Amino acid sequence: MSNKVKIIVLKSSSNSKILSISGNPGDSLSEHKVDNHALLLMRTGNIIYKEEKRSQVLSAGEICDIPANIVHQITCSTNAAFFVVMPNSAKMKFEK
Question: I need a labelling partner for 5 at 20 to 30 A (CA). Which of 13, 25, 48, 83 fits?
Fold first, then answer.
């Protein structure tokens, strides 16, 4: 069973927030959706980003759009760190 990634709110303003997320190989952020559009920016390592209609490996320096209300999951395939930028009002809902 995988461990969960570490999530830290790096910066928050009245309009947006930046999450710093990191993990080791096998760590994951379980299936969830966000009620607003978000942007994922890779810092180091590799992750697998999966959603309903696509799955892709992201590496350091790459960017991924996260559409609103689409169930997705992130799994670290190496030691990895990335940022997620979203509206401050965005709410995450984890699937059961």
Answer: 13
Alpha-carbon distance 70 to 35, whole Å?
A: 8
Q: How far is 29 from 26, CA to CA, in rounded Å?
A: 10
pLDDT given at position 1: 43
**Assigned fold of 6-94:** Jelly Rolls (2.60.120)
Q: What is the pLDDT of residues 47-60, one digit of tens each?
A: 999 998 899 999 99
Q: How many CA atoms lie within 13 A of 28 on its CB side?
A: 14
21 contacts 7 by C-beta, under 8 angstroms: yes
Domain spans in the chain, listed from the N-terminal domain onward: 6-94
